[in-house]
């Protein structure tokens, strides 16, 4: 049996600062915080983010593919060389190549000639940042972001893309990403006409975050290790 004392409590904190029935402190203008996290709204927010980055890649991929094909027809000896493309400062830039400077300049000039194509590439990078860094986290029932969080991955690892806004323009290799999307095996539920949507997930291979994982040593002890890298997550919800 639990005995409850009815003697007066002389604890000063309880006397002066104990919460009232209304949930406020009587001698201070403070309202106790409520738990406002809504799991459904949190998942809905992530699904919306995934769709937004998928849509951003679809808008870019179709004209980007056509532009590259046109350049391949005009100068096949240049386009068959190894190189990649990134979007920096709203313009395409050739990277990862031994191409002559004149050939690099030609590719960049041709792709940046269409300001709309360069704008779509920049918009895709900005959406990648929103989906994977700034807008991912817990939400309340109104859908408002309460706290930004990282992502869970297989094997108990987690990855946090904090700071992605400063590295996305260099790390997202657009020509390679387009090739990955074209070569990928479609999930059983996806139609060929929706292939470009894969860019919203496959871009994870090109964005770098802080990976935290518990590692067990040979002697049975363990430690938490943190590294920088990329994780291609298969799940949708974490």
What does this structure look like?
A hairpin with a 5-residue loop joins strand 5 (151-152) and strand 6 (158-160). By secondary structure, the chain is an alpha+beta fold. Mean pLDDT is 86; it is low at 1-26. Helix content is 41%, strand content 16%. The chain starts with 11 loop residues before the first helix and ends in a 9-residue tail after the last strand. The relative contact order is 0.14. The strands form three sheets. The chain has a four-stranded antiparallel sheet with strand order 5-6-7-8, with no helix packed on it. A two-stranded antiparallel sheet has the order 1-2. The chain is built from eight helices and eight strands, in the order H-H-H-E-E-H-H-E-E-E-E-H-H-H-E-E. Helix 2 packs antiparallel against helix 5. It has a domain at 39-138 and 150-188 and 207-229.
Topology diagram in text:
Layout: H1 12-17, H2 39-74, H3 76-79, E1 84-88, E2 91-95, H4 101-113, H5 115-134, E3 137-139, E4 145-148, E5 151-152, E6 158-160, H6 168-171, H7 174-183, H8 199-202, E7 209-216, E8 222-229
Antiparallel strand pairs: 1-2, 3-4, 5-6, 6-7, 7-8
């Amino acid at each position: 049996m639990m005995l409850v004392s009815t003697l007066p409590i002389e604890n000063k904190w309880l006397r002066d600062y104990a919460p009232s029935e209304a949930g406020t402190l009587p001698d201070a203008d403070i309202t106790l915080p409520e738990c406002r996290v809504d799991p459904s709204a949190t998942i809905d927010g992530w699904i919306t983010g995934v769709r937004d980055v998928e849509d951003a890649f679809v808008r870019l991929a179709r004209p980007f593919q056509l532009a590259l094909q046109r350049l391949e027809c005009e100068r096949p000896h240049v386009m068959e060389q190894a190189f990649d493309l990134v979007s920096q400062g709203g313009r395409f830039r050739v990277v990862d190549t031994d191409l002559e400077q004149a050939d690099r300049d030609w590719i960049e000039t041709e792709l940046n000639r269409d300001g709309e194509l360069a704008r779509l590439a920049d918009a895709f990078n900005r959406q990648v940042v929103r989906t994977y860094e700034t807008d991912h986290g817990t939400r309340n029932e109104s859908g408002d972001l309460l706290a930004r969080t990282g992502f869970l991955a297989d094997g108990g690892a987690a990855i946090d893309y904090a700071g992605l806004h400063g590295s996305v323009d260099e790390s997202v290799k657009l020509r390679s990403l387009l090739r990955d999307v074209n070569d990928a095996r479609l999930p059983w539920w996806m139609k060929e006409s929706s292939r470009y949507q894969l860019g919203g997930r496959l871009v994870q291979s090109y964005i770098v975050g802080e990976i935290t994982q518990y590692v067990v040593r040979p002697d049975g002890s363990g430690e938490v290790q943190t590294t920088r890298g990329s994780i291609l997550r298969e799940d949708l919800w974490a």
